[in-house]
Amino acid sequence: MCLVTVQVRVWRGRHVILAVSSCSAEYLHRNFIVLSQEQLPTAGVKLNDLKMDPSSPVSPATILEQTALRLGCSPADKKLAFHLDEEDELKHLRECFCVPKVKDLPPTDLSLVDGEESCVYFAGNSLGLQPRKVKTYLDEELDKWARTGVHGHFNGQRPWALADECILDLMAELVGAQRHEVALMNGLTVNLHLQMLSFFKPTPRRYKILLEARAFPSDHYAVESQLRLHGLDVEKCMLMMQPREGEETLRIEDILAVIEKEGDSIAVILFSGVQYYTGQLFDIPRITKAGQEKGCFVGFDLAHAVGNVEIHLHDWGVDFACWCSYKYLNSGAGGLAGAYIHEKHSQSIKPALIGWWGHEFKTRFLMENKLQLSKGINGFRLSNPPILLVCALQASLEVFGQTTMKALRRKSILLTGYLEYLIKHYYNEDKTNPGKPFVKIITPSRIEERGCQLTLSFSLPIKSVFKELEKRGVACDMREPNALRVAPVPLYNSFRDVHRFIEILGSAITSSKQTANNTALSGSY
Ligand SMILES: Cc1ncc(COP(=O)(O)O)c(C=O)c1O
């Protein structure tokens, strides 16, 4: 018998031998796939090898470790970040955006950082960066307005009266819908109300609305007020799903169990696509199917999902959905929102409130006051489209048009996986060292259950960590009670951004720990 030591790595789901101390070549080749270190680069684990397919055994951590091994460095070395950026086929898209300089962010402390550097912008989950083309498109329309006044309504490449329709194809593509199933109008909350007015028709048997206990406040208030509008008892009719005791996110089996148990009395199920606080990506097709099998309408607030994850509203049969465009769609604060209704409802679901923009285009301007309602979501449009908001959204959607959500998602999985890897590498809780600060990731670790955002909680006071990050040129956001949301966005963030964030987080944690120690010391006197 001979004793051999082998260095084995999992590569593309198979065990690969990288080094062997003593063993016969014949034995090795009979029992293993053998690759030398030199062969690995040619066999190259590319970003493209990373699949969202849950059955794929290749995890971001494996890719990162393999790539670091090829580079001969630790996965925590910034050499890996530079390499991944080099390999990134979408890296040119960053140039389409204005990335703020550190010195221009109000909380920056210039005694701590180089103000000329680009900031680490991880706040795309809140407000996306400005696409460079926005100014050009706005200027074009302002100029047209100045030169031609009212003639702009039906002239030029973006006739104002049809402006929203000029970008519908790009928008519909991102949510996996047919063009006629999508409208661009209003703000998210307004659209949610308009849709609820038509989908929530309570009867004595079916009168409840199911939503998450920690839904975004606007959704919560919208549901509450819709129930009140029908004179219903909010306590009885608003079914709110809580995570299990001691857990932060909802389990799909629990959601399905509630639908199974309560479904007969539920009129509408309203979930977010990606949860704003935890970053959890819900299983939209399964929730939709389960709800519809029980006779419920199923709708989604896609504020944090659109432009972040792949969405196939039409194929999944989702009844209705709405979203804002200022987060991952980069249309600027208060940007033009989207709404979708599946074509299967185009004859049966009518708007409760009607304006002139819901009237068929062909006869709209005859002003006869005899309504010819457009079908489906188009009948829900109330007012003429805001051209300046369309310009901003167009600039962003055209950047998305240069790639696909599949490609963005592929990069996103690795980018966020890299962030997760480094956080765990440096800040896992060490029970044997209770004084060591640690970071907990609230967002699910399964890639199918999250988008690009990670939500973090800290063993140190979060306000202090957040403040220290902001002083050093990181843009991210803090949410009460104890969450820091960080979103590396594949359209414009780089692997180097992630590495820089981790470096800065190190300084922020050291400084926060120091402050906490000083406070404790001064408190003891
Ligand atoms: C999940 C979610 N829903 C609704 C809203 C409210 O959107 P609006 O103010 O555009 O109506 C937001 C805003 O951030 C949100 O994150």
Key structural traits:
525 residues; alpha/beta; 7-stranded mixed sheet; disordered N terminus; binds pyridoxal-5'-phosphate; PyrdxlP-dep_Trfase; pyridoxal phosphate; pyridine nucleotide biosynthesis; hydrolase; cytoplasm
Summarize the structure in short:
This protein is an alpha/beta fold and 525 residues long. Helices cover 38% and strands 13% of the residues. It has 18 helices and 18 strands.
Spatial strand sequence of the major β-sheet: 7-13-12-11-10-8-9
Fraction of residues in helices? 25-40%
State the end-to-end CA separation: 68 Å
> Which regions are unreliable across 5 or more consecutive residues at pLDDT < 50?
1-6, 10-22, 28-45, 51-55
Bound molecules: pyridoxal-5'-phosphate
Strand-pairing-aware structural class:
alpha/beta
Radius of gyration using CA atoms only? 26 Å
Strand content: 5-15%
Kindly describe this structure.
- The chain has a seven-stranded mixed sheet with strand order 7-13-12-11-10-8-9, with helices on both faces. A four-stranded antiparallel sheet has the order 14-15-18-17, covered by helices on one side. The chain has a three-stranded mixed sheet with strand order 1-2-3.
- By secondary structure, it is α/β, with parallel strands linked by helices.
- It has helices spanning about 25-30, 40-45, 60-70, 80-85, 135-150, 165, 170-175, 190-200, 215-230, 235, 250-260, 285-295, 315, 360-365, 385-400, 405-425, 460-470, 495-525; strands at about 5-10, 15-20, 35, 95-100, 120, 130, 180-185, 210, 240, 265-270, 295-300, 320-325, 340, 440, 455-460, 475, 475-480, 485.
- The protein is globular.
- Residues about 1-5, about 10-20, about 30-45 and about 50-55 have low confidence and may be disordered.
- Helix 5 runs antiparallel to helix 15.
- A hairpin with a 2-residue loop joins strand 1 and strand 2.
- It binds pyridoxal-5'-phosphate.
- This is Kynureninase.
